[in-house]
Amino acid sequence: MKTKLKRLPAIPLLAGVLILLHYILINAVAPPVNSSWGIRYSGYWLLVIASSIGTNLLALYLGYTACLTKKPWQRLGKIAFYLVMTSLIGVIWGLIFYKAFDVQDLWIGLFPISYNNFPFATSILIWYVGGPFIARYIANFSQEIQQAMAFILSWLVLLMPFIFAKPLWGMTDGNSFIWVGTLFVFGILIAQGSFSWLNYYKKTFFVAIIGFILVVTTAKLMPITQSPSSLFGRFYSSQLLNVGLISLAVFGLLNKFFTTHFTWLTRSIWPNWFALCAYFVSCLPIITNRLANDLHINDGMSTVEWLALIVMYTAIMLVAVGLLTLVLNWFTRIKSVHYLIVKFTLNNFTDLIGAPKFAKRMLRENWHILVVVMCGFIFTVTQMSVTFLTTTGFSWKLLYDILTVTRNRLILNVIIFVCCFLLLFSLINRFWPALVFTSGISIFIGVAEYLKISLRDEPILPVDLSMVTAFGEIAKMLSPIIIVAAVVLLIILITASLILQHHLGGIYPHDMWKRRLITFLAMLLFFSGSFFVNHENSLPYIIFRSFNIDPLFYDQSTGARMNGPIVQFINNLDVKIMDEPAGYSKAKIKSIMTKYNRQAKQINQTRHNELQNQTIVFVLSESFSDPNRVPKMKVTPNPIPYLTKLKQTTDSGLMLSSGYGGGTANMEWQSLTGLSISNLSPTLPTPYTQLVPKQKIVPAFTNLFDSKIAIHPYNASLYNRKQVFKAFGFQQFYYQGSNDQLSYEQKLADSSYISDDSAYKQTMKVIKRTQSGSRFIQLSTMQNHMPYTTNYKGKKFRIMGSAFDETNRDSVETYVQGLSYTDKALKQFIAEIDKVDKPVTVVWYGDHLAGLYKSSLMDKYPIQLHQTDYFIYNNQTHQLSYTDRLVSPYAFPALALANGNVKVTPYYALLTQVTDKLPAMTTDPAASETNNTNGANIFVNQKGRQLKYRNLSSQQKKIFRDYQLIQYDLTAGQQYAARWAQQKLK
């Protein structure tokens, strides 16, 4: 019997509620463990399966009302608007509450079908648009044929896959096109009078109850161990017989009930849009990830609390989606928004035939911006390609990697290109000159980037702009061919822009000055964000991270290759070196210099040695730290017995590292300059690449010596070491590939790194070299660098404790074995030092802990996980003043001079006071898990306890203030004290 059709908005309303409840249950709730027959376990899975019928009900309802829906294609524009706005609001939500989003969250809204993040919507949309035709076609069939159709579909789609629980017809889940279409046709058939049993309360109620009993019984006999998001089984899957019949039964009950009750609801269309928004929200990864991580409901609470949280989450989600629906509905009434929706609306189904003409019209109307985007794409790919060509030849794989691996970063570069064009276009109101000029800049950037990386292994940085004033000197360094080619290209670009503008035009009408002004101001605002990209939690910072931009300050060339030259340049714009201390002035700096001139004389009254004929060696031992000092870990036997013994017979202790798992160059910088990284701005995490190139004068410990040699048994591209060491005054730099060739390059087992034994032998070769005058050697080893995958033979150390994950055990064992090899090499190194008949002082320290331990340890033991070993050894004095002193790397120059009883210059008198009178300074180790960035300055006393500035004595505050003022002057100020800090001992 054919039923009297009515719209029943209560059904899509309930469907929306179930969709949201299901979304909460599978993403925010940890599935309860099946311990006996718990109420929570059974209740959870019953709710999961019951709520999974939400999309089934929606498909049935849309099919049921298909014959009442007139021209559904006219709603496509509005549906698209709801989808895009829901995705955008999701991004805004992530920005406001979590200071983060992923660029995929934008693509999902703009390309929903291609991204396939809304599979149910994609499936139902096709059936929905064709619904009136399908309903009209089926209505022409006799009742007998309709019944046969219902039977055949039920047999093929419901029963056959159920028999062996196999996903027939490609129906792997409830979103498949076949399953959604079957439900849609079922809805049409119900409207035509088929499925007559749905008209009886008792029958539908009986089917629903039996279905749920089967669910509960099966869950008891065969406990569910699957993830709720991918649940599959005869009695569980929303696209198989049991849940399918439950869906039909519930739909029949609701249909029967709301046909005769609450009839006033039939006048509202809001529930339809509510269900749509509910589904869109449930597909947004940005919300899903937060539910699964930040808002997850765990099992360790009472059932009442557990259930209350689920109800609360669902209620909040219902209110939020309800408000979202109302807001979007209000937006559609705004004139400009309504016009936009209408513009993308099909008035008649036959308009699809004119789709090619529509596409041509859109291309014709918007070809200008398409040309700009295409130029931006071509020139960006070219720029990124030429940066790679400095290290490798061209290949199609290189191009493929740029288009895929760096896709998001490529898109950001194109956006910047387009915005640069819009800025120029809005200013000069000439399309072709603006485009050609923007393209010309891109070409010059690509060429300049290639030349600079080839010559100096460094991309174009903001500091290079200061060299524009020295263009004549730069031109002398370039080949005449390059200069001529640049001039010719410039002439071609200017000529081309004038010709194109004359023939093709392309300007704003004169009465569009308001649009030009708005565009100009918007682009200025966009580019002003360049000065905030490194300010944590700022909008530009969040956007850059969402596009997968990694500044790679420690390797600027790789940063230019991976991020693109323009983005890497912008990364280096937002660099504030240091906050200016109150009272900074030339007079103040001079008074400090005078003060420590006197202090140096006072210190030197008790110091009797000069640097002449002395050698000081700084040894940075990669990732070295006593593993037995790691909380909750024990290694037996002691893997570093020699170092343990040596530290008891010479000046030694613990060093506060500002890094964990990385940050080697920062420890080098501090030890070589005597400056603390904790005084620098958070936007300057890597002084080697961001600070040193900007300094006109670079004071360093090397200034005190006649001969300066650096050794790093690896390549020198990381951290800009070649240029930095040149600025520090090193006369020789031994590294792999250098003109100063390494004599020892042996490796242990299958390691990628040169062994410490070879590094020490190379150092001894330099020490034994006959030379008059003072000498300084900087050695940075590589043996114990990550990753810890070397297949060392005969690992003999037993490692116990819970400091690391078991999956990491092999890496920890490899790391500990490497420390043992370092200990043995160190023993031989010190023995060789003792044979030298001239004074040699060795400052030896580990730069940071290996990043092998559980991140949860950082919350409880931040100081301990930033403490490494150090000692200061002199082959003649064998001084022993302390064995447990806690210091920071900036103290090593002062400690080295003190250990050798060497006189100091005024600057090192200041460092001596800072070292002796102040607690050790470092960045806050609890600020992040990795702590590879600088920021908040903290003090740590000799007991390893953190102090604040207010805990310092008045004398300590004065010394700290002097130190801050001098550091600011040397790094960010006028460098009044630069020559003073560089002076040698007289």
TrEMBL record:
Claim: Transmembrane helix is one of the keywords in the record: yes
Annotated InterPro entries: Alkaline_phosphatase_core_sf (IPR017850), OpgB/LTA_synthase_biosynth (IPR050448), Sulfatase_N (IPR000917)
Pfam family name, one: Sulfatase
GO terms for cellular component: plasma membrane
PANTHER family per record: LIPOTEICHOIC ACID SYNTHASE, PHOSPHOGLYCEROL TRANSFERASE I
Designated name of the protein: Uncharacterized protein
Chief location of this protein within or outside the cell: membrane
Pathway: Cell wall biogenesis; lipoteichoic acid biosynthesis
Topology in the lipid bilayer: Multi-pass membrane protein
The organism's place on the tree of life at top rank: Bacteria
Species lineage: Bacteria, Bacillati, Bacillota, Bacilli, Lactobacillales
Compartment list: Cell membrane
Gene3D superfamilies attached to this UniProt entry: Alkaline Phosphatase, subunit A
Keyword Secreted: no
Keyword entries, A-Z: Cell membrane, Membrane, Transmembrane, Transmembrane helix
CDD domains per record: LTA_synthase
